[in-house]
Each structure stands twice: as C-alpha cells, then as structure tokens.
Amino acid sequence: MTERQLQQEAKSPDLDHHTGQILRADSSGGSPRDLSGSAIAEDETEKSDPHIERKPPTPAPNGGYGWVCTVCCGLINAHTWGLNSSYGVFLAHYLATDTFPGATSLEYAFVGSLSISCAMLVSPAATYTTRVFGTKTTLFIGVAFETASLIGASFAHEIWHLFLSQGICFGIGMGFLFVGSVGIVPQWFTTRRSLANGFATSGSGLGGLLYSLATGAMLRTIGLAWAFRVLGILSFAVNSACALLLRDRNAAIGATQLAFETSLFRRPEYLLFNGYGFFSLLAYVVLIFSLANYANAIGLDASQASLISALLNLGQALGRPPIGYFSDTLGRINMAALMTFLSGLFALIIWTNATSYGVLIFYSILGGAVAGTFWVTVAPVSAEVVGLKNVPSALNLEWLVIVLPSTFSEPIALEIVDGTGRYIGTQLFTGFMYIVAAACMVLLRGWKIGELDEVARMKSASAGEVDVWAAEDEADKDGLAKAAGRKGMLKNCLKWRKV
Known about the structure:
Mean pLDDT: 80
Family: Belongs to the major facilitator superfamily. Monocarboxylate porter (TC 2.A.1.13) family.
Region (Disordered): 1-59
Subcellular location: Membrane
Transmembrane segments: 108-126, 138-157, 163-183, 195-214, 226-246, 270-292, 330-351, 357-378, 423-444
Keywords: Membrane, Transmembrane, Transmembrane helix
CATH class of the largest domain: Mainly Alpha
C-alpha cells in the first residue's frame, strides 16, 4: 500500500463505536479492518498469494448483478409467499368438503396462520446461520424444509398432520428462504432501492396469482395429495436455482447480522416502525386468507372463489412496482403511510359493499394493489429508520414482532364470522387495523422530518464555524439528530416533505 493511500485512509476513518477501533472497508469492498497495521499485512498477503479468495468489488450503485438478484428474490417470493397465498384456496376447499372430519374452521385458520408466524419465529436462527455459514446455506435449509412440508402434507389424513406439514414445516422453510434473501436487494441499489424492492416483492403477487389458479385447477382434477406433490417439486427446482445465483453484499457494507439487537427497542422511532408492521399484518393476513371463503359465503362457487384469490394476488403483483417507484420519487415513508391508509379505506368502503361477483373482482384487484404495502416498504423504510448497516438486525426483530398478528389474525377473523354469522365485523376489523398502521407511519414521518431538519441545521452551523456541541447532551451527531426528530415528531408529522 502506498504512502498516499495510507494518508487517504487516515483522513476518513470509520469508527467502531463498540470497540473504539478505527475501521475502514478495504479497497475491494470487503469488511472493515483495524488500521493498526493488520490491514497492510493482509493486503500484502493477498497480493502475494493467488489462492486467497478475494471479496468481490463494490458494484456500481443501482444495479449491475443486483438485477439478477432482484429476479431471484422475486422468484423466491413467488415460491414462498406466493405459494402461501394459495392457502386461501386450500382453506375454502377444506371448509367446503370437510376434508379432515371433525376439524373446525378455527383449526383450519390456524394452519395458515402458523405458516406465517413460524416463518417469523425462525428469523433469529436464519440470521445466525447467515452470519456464521453464509446466505446460501440459509437458503438451502429453507429449500429442504419447504419441499419436505409440501410432500409431507400430501400424506396428511388428520388435522394435526396438516398443522405439522402445511403449517409449521412450511413456515420454517419459508422463514429461512425469506430472511436469507429479503435484505439482499437493498444492498445493490441506492436511489432505485424501493423500485427494485417493488419488483422483487411483486413476485409474491405473481406467485399467488399463478398458484391460486393452479391449485384450484389441481384440486378439481388430480386431487389434494398430488396438488401438494406438484407444488413441492416446483418449489424445490425454482428455489434451488435461485439460491445458487443469489449473491449478498453483507461483507461489503459491514452488515451487523445480529439476531437480537435489542437496543433498537429503546428508540421510539423504531417502536413506531414495529407498530406499522404489527397492525399491517393483523389486516393483511385476514385479507389474503379470507377473501376466497368470503366469496363462498356470498354464494360464489369454488372456481369463482379461487379466481377472486388469484385476482387479489394479481393486484399485488401490479401494484407493488409502482409503489416502489413512487417511494423513490415521493418518499418511502410518505408512500408507506398513504398506501396503507388507502388499504384501510378500500376495505371499509368497497369490501363491505362487495356482495356481487363483479364488485368483489373490482375490490380484489384494487385492494390487492395496496394490500401488501408493508412487504414493499419494510426494508427501504427500515433503512431510513436505523441506517443500512443495521437493516438485517432491525428486520430480524421486526419479524419477531409480527409473529403474534400473523398467528391470530385469521382465527380472530373466522371467530368474528362464526360469532355473528356475517362478514361485516371482519371487514371493519381489517379496515381499521390498516388505518392504525398508517397512523404509526404518519408519526414516524414526523420524526424523520425533525431528524433531517436537525442534520441541515448542524451542517449550516458547521459551515459558519459555530460550535454546536458545547451545550448538547447527545454524544454524537447521529444521536443528536434522532433526539431532535423525537422532540418534533407531533409537530412535523403533517408537514409536506419527501421522506
């Protein structure tokens, strides 16, 4: 390493706040190194030993191989969340045919809910395997569990078999695949981050569209058991191929990959982010699992019910890329708040009046376009709240937070229906939960505006050579800006600003 390079490193060191060491990513985009001398020795060793594996160079912002990763993540979403969305068709089939004699509607509801909650519960384990063994190992663990779950479900003849296979085992597989892949796309993009994430998450909508229609057709033609086996074979082939092609940039960006970074819970802005996820999932799970059964409740047949579920997923596939695009241009928090509010409004106004096939089709497409806003915005918004480096840790805790709503939302919905004999209570529950989630985002945008204003003030003061630190309690600029954002949260939440 030349003297000039060492001087450049000395000018802009990165400080590890946990250890006090000065760190800097190496020139190839690798993980940070201690500048006490080991970096020089390692660089010289890498030059002299051709057998040492070199880390990939930092890619240009906004793409490159990132678009390949976007496609792969989209396909994984199609064969995890998309497959899971087809449970609405399975649920309608179970309830209509009494597939497992003696099973109640509440038990069937818990099968679908368990798949999502287990996916969230395994997030610490998936984060750990990603940090210790790498992304590909995590993804292939997910492939194994998901394939085993679908093949195992094909042999189920009692309801508890379904709990273990289509519920718990599928959820574990989906969790490892999801956690292993969800943070990769944002790592490859800067200004197009939300757009790319929108394309990746639209895969779940396309998968839900395809597999809702395919599942309905297979149930009518080849039966329940072979429907499960065909889905298992397809998911194994596609997810395995994507796992081989995906590349993460955890080392290049210095991602923390901590399973339990509980210090985040001491930040009010992060708690608002958790509230956004909690209330969004209470509504979203009800919508994707109940709409096909609601179609049956208003007199539609099985093929029409599966089409309604498919159109809901079509709406998600069509709506997510534009949400991502406008998130980058209008603000990620702004779009999350607006689209989530529209989800609640559409449920309260349109779904409650959807008593005919045509109106329900209209709601399925329009409501579906905004129903999954949480999944489009969760990674980009978390980067706004905690910073890109802490996104894996923040998301890991977020998945644990949404375990409860994922588990109990659909049972709550069916209990409301069974208790009242009508769907109106469930529809109102869905709409109001979306609106509460949107309120959390409105408060969060107030915090973000206050933080950005404080950063601008500090830059202005620094330019005027004014000492802004003498009378402040915060230890660093980042903490000072966040504290200022918290103080002005309510005052700023209705200001217009791109955030």
